[in-house]
Write a structure and sequence with these properties.
This protein has helices spanning 21-27, 67-79, 98-107, 120-127, 159-164, 178-187, 217-224, 241-244, 263-275, 294-302, 315-328, 345-353, 368-379, 398-405, 428-435, 445-453, 469-477, 491-503, and strands at residues 5-10, 32-35, 52-55, 58-59, 62-63, 83-88, 112-115, 141-145, 168-172, 195-200, 208-213, 230-234, 256-259, 279-282, 286-289, 309-312, 339-342, 386-392, 409-420, 439-442, 463-466, 484-485. It has four domains: 5-117, 3-Layer(aba) Sandwich (Cobalt-precorrin-4 Transmethylase, domain 1); 122-249, Methyltransferase, Cobalt-precorrin-4 Transmethylase, Domain 2, CATH 3.30.950.10; 256-285 and 421-503, 3-Layer(aba) Sandwich (Rossmann fold); 290-419, Rossmann fold, CATH 3.40.50.10090. It is 34% helix and 21% strand. It is built from 18 helices and 22 strands. The termini are far apart. Helix 13 packs parallel to helix 14 (398-405). By secondary structure, it is α/β, with parallel strands linked by helices.
């Protein structure tokens, strides 16, 4: 058997937008993904179905797999003929031990490629408003590690050389040893008043910045309980933070927000919240599964051209409908003269993606009763009109009941089922149990029901955000407060409501 291939890939500093296109391309092709502690867990969603995901994270005193075991794992998986992606936080060759792994692969005869990533040595200070180089302040940048090989007999870090070097110094992996490191630098001649900034979980919504001097930073770390992982910047450029700090000024910066949509849908809401600075993380509560009677659904889709109206009640319903439709028909015009109604803008967007126009949107997006009112107003009467109602198995029957009461002929097309999500791929459940959140978002009644089924204790300080009145009613039925409700019952409306809440 020919050996597979191993890619040593830089995952970037944490912000998903700072991952390279090459990295994403390789993750999408991986048979095996070996990822570390500092890799953004959202990258796991890029893996193809069937990809083996192996966590090899290393924190101080807690290594999921020792380095020697990681090296052998990469070799063994590649020898099975697999495409192996070794995903490493930052850049694999900047204190990432990528060089060692490459040497082991070469010795074993495994072909490999090294994919650079954006290192936290430059990204961390940047997101804290600190330029590592600036013409008015420095002409040199020195990068060093605060964590050396513990098996070495003595330190190879020349603190005297570092102290005397002009310009900015950036240190990785030194939070736990800051006192002896700063003492060594001062003893070697560095000015005690030299500004220092520590940036924790840089480029993410969890980012924290602690500023001091060489003389004070170690004590500040102890007093505040500041923890790794963090990047340390030493030099006058730290003072520029007061002028050009940008990331930490975003409206939702520092707010931890739980997203409870399906795993497939959560990413979009996560990204939009992250753009506002939020620390958004997933607890997928539901999964979209096919209907129990796929044949019956397929027959209704096949006959969709015979209806006067097709009513879609969710983006998932649209996806399921056209997935079957385009297996039966090659041309979207085969839908015939049927007019289309959508419950809201998100659903309309999905219909538009199929190159069709929505003929009717309700005045109050997301409200089924209002959708029926608008249909009645549009048609004058629905007596003897044929409606294909494309819905989830669990969706309320209010549209069917109200239309039927007005004399319409309604066929329900069960397009999908929402079932409990049993996996925790990004560790969101464990994180919520440990530290809670500032806000939990709910985008449907089913997300409420399935979230409660997980049995979490919700802290009193956690705010509940609802996409609209139907979801809010379900929350209240379960004795949960509704602190935030979207005026426009859409994802953008929900985000706007959260932003407004914290602004006031």
């Amino acid at each position: 058997m020919n050996p597979g291939y191993c890619y040593l890939v830089g995952a970037g500093p944490g912000d998903l937008g700072l991952c390279t296109l090459r990295a994403k391309e390789l993750i999408e092709q991986a048979d095996v993904l070996v990822y570390d502690y500092l890799s953004n867990p959202e990258m796991l969603r890029w893996t193809p179905e069937g990809c083996e995901q192996i966590y090899a994270g290393k924190k101080a005193g807690d290594h999921a797999i020792p380095q020697g075991g990681i090296n052998q794992l990469l070799i063994d998986k590649a020898k099975e003929g697999k495409t192996v992606v070794r995903l490493k936080g930052g850049d694999p060759m900047v204190f990432g031990r990528g060089g060692e792994e490459a040497q082991e692969l070469r010795a074993a005869g495994i072909p490999f490629e090294i994919v650079p990533g954006i290192s936290s040595t430059i990204a961390g200070p940047c997101y804290a408003g600190i330029p590592v180089t600036h013409r008015a302040h420095n002409t040199q940048l020195t990068i060093f590690t605060g964590h050396e090989d513990p098996t070495k007999a003595e330190s190879s870090i020349d603190y005297e050389q570092i102290a005397k070097a002009p310009g900015t110094k950036v240190m990785l992996m030194g939070v736990g040893r800051m006192a002896p490191i700063t003492e060594s630098l001062i003893k070697a001649g560095a000015a005690p008043e030299t500004p220092v900034a520590m940036v924790r979980w840089a480029t993410t919504g969890q980012q924290q910045t602690l500023v001091g001097t060489l003389a004070t930073i170690a004590q500040k770390i102890e007093d505040t309980g500041f923890k790794a992982p963090a990047v340390c910047t030493i030099g006058d450029v730290v003072n520029l933070r007061e002028e050009i700090n940008w990331f930490e000024e975003r409206p939702l910066f520092g707010k931890s927000i739980v997203v409870t949509r399906t795993r497939k849908q959560a990413g979009d809401l996560n990204r939009k919240l992250a753009l506002l600075g939020a620390d958004a993380y997933e607890i997928p509560t539901i999964r979209i599964d096919p209907p129990k009677d796929m044949l019956a659904f397929g027959e209704l889709v096949r006959d969709s051209h015979t209806y006067d109206w097709i009513v879609f009640t969710s983006p998932n319903a649209v996806d399921a409908f056209f997935d079957v439709f385009f297996k039966l028909y090659k041309d979207v015009r085969s839908i015939g003269g049927a007019r289309i109604a959508a419950i809201g803008p998100g659903t309309e967007k999905k219909v538009n993606a199929a190159r069709l126009t929505v003929d009717l949107l309700p005045d109050q997006p997301g409200v089924a009763e209002n959708l029926v009112e608008c249909l009645l107003r549009e048609n004058g009467t629905v007596d003897h009109l044929k409606f294909l109602y494309v819905k989830a198995e669990e969706t309320r029957d209010v549209i069917n009941e109200l239309l039927t009461k007005q004399g319409a002929i309604v066929d329900e097309a069960i397009a999908y089922r929402t079932v409990p999500e049993t996996e925790d791929p990004t560790g969101g459940q464990a994180r919520f149990k440990e530290s809670g959140a500032d806000v939990i978002t709910f985008t449907s009644s089913s997300t409420v029901d399935h979230f409660l089924d997980l049995g979490f204790d919700i802290p009193e300080t956690t705010k509940i955000a609802s996409i609209g009145p139907i979801t809010s009613a379900t929350l209240k039925e379960n004795a949960l407060p509704v602190d935030i409700e979207a005026e426009e019952h859409t994802i953008p409306g929900l985000i706007a409501a959260i932003e407004r809440y914290f602004a006031t």
